[in-house]
Amino acid sequence: MSAEIHGKMVYSFEKPMWHQITEPSLVPMGAEEILDGRFGGGFQIHLRPITLELNGEQVETGDFGIVRGKSPYEQEERVFGYCSERYTPLQPRAVARAFDSAVLEPAETMAFLGHGEEMFISWKMPSFEVVVGDEVDMYGIVRTGFDTLKGARLFTSIYRPVCFNTITLAQNWAKRNTDGQGKGNVWKGKGVNKNLLRDLGYWMSHVQGNALKEVELLKSFFAKLAKTPINTDVEAHSILFEAYPPIENVSKYFPVELREAKDEKTEAYNETQAGLRDGIYELFAGKGTQITPDYWGMLNSTSEYFCHVQASKRPIAESVMFGGRQKNTMRMVNVLANRSK
Fold first, then answer.
1. Is the dihedral of CA 97, 103, 104, 106 positive or negative?
2. Angle 324-339/295-304 helices, nearest 10 degrees?
3. By C-alpha distance, which of 162, 130, 156, 170 is closest to 208?
4. Rounded distance, CA 107 to CA 120, Å?
5. What burial class does residue 124 get, using C-beta atoms within 10 Å of its C-beta: 0-12 exposed, 13-18 middle, 19+ buried?
6. Domain stop point among 191, 215, 239
7. Number of domains observed in the structure of the chain
């Protein structure tokens, strides 16, 4: 598997990289600091006029070649593509500076790919621990190209990019998990936008700002839950039935030939719901870890059940964050939120 890193222009904070091209940094660094301290100052992108011979003279066509200047790992200049006067190239240093100003967090990873045609910077977004040893972090990632094809993209992903394959993996995850609310693909722009760098900065700041607001809202919500007691078992069971209710058997409305199958499906669903209620209640009633007799304790019992107790044949981390386990946990969150208004 090829890393496709340009020279040694790759950075990782604390965690080793599979390709071991460079050692991880033990000190957090901003993107521009990485560019100067780890990447030898980077390189510049130039637009050079394209000329052709016309009537015995060299005449500029009005188009330009996109040229990468000398880099610390390749002294020869390279042509990345061709463009019209409408194209405004991004500069690596400007992208790094915009990242530092907008995100206000150290870079988690950063790299240049190929001959420098692309760069990416990632940062670790606010997150909560899911399961010890099976954790999922969310990363904000900006990926920019220095030709007319790739433009600039901003997305979030559970995959931490350190090379071409992992940035592709992260971007594919973003494509599959876009929700229009800050998860997955968030924004993309092209070099014909003269405000491309400005807009990229706005969007990076927006994504990080929203993530921080959500964390604060969650903290406030959790504090409210901790102040709302559950005084009786009847109340606890009422909450559980509201979050995970059984469904009515409607097989009598089905053709006779299909009623048995419908009965079995309904029974299986209701057994599953009962199992969820019983499992969470056991934790709430005393088997859970440091469970308090309030809404906060009910939520922790629910989280502990889906993170630690409910059986699974596969790794559960992504399910806890975005799959069925997350949806089941959110059922309890919504019930408790409505009851605590």
1. negative
2. 170
3. 156
4. 10
5. middle
6. 215
7. 2
Give the DSSP letter of residue 100: H
pLDDT at site 235: 96
Percent of residues in the chain assigned helix, strand, coil, to nearest 5: 45, 20, 35
How many other C-beta atoms can be found within 10 angstroms of the C-beta atom of residue 165?
15
> Rounded to an integer, what distance in angstroms lies between the CA atom of residue 96 and that of residue 142?
10
pLDDT tens for each residue of 282-312: 999 999 888 999 999 999 899 889 878 887 7
For residue 262, what are the domain limits? 229-339
pLDDT at 134: 42
CA distance 18 to 330: 36
Alpha-carbon distance values, 14 to 17, 29, 119, 163 (Å): 9, 11, 20, 16
Shared-domain flag, residues 240 and 274: yes
Q: How far, CA to CA in Å, does 83 sit from each of 80, 118, 169?
A: 10, 17, 29
Instruction: Judge if 195 and 311 occupy the same domain.
Output: no
301 and 199, same structural domain? no
CA distances from 325 to 276, 304, 336 (A): 11, 11, 17
List of the chain residues with pLDDT < 50: 1, 129-135
DSSP 253: G
- Nearest C-alpha neighbor of 230 from the set 339, 124, 329: 339
CB contact at 8 A, 297 and 284: yes
* Residue 61 Cα distances to 48, 74, 102, 166, 332, angstroms: 11, 29, 38, 40, 65
pLDDT for the residue 129: 46
What pLDDT is stored for residue 180 in this prediction? 78
Burial of 78 (0-12, 13-18, 19+ CB in 10 A): middle
Single-letter residue type at 275: G
Place of tokens 């059940």: 305
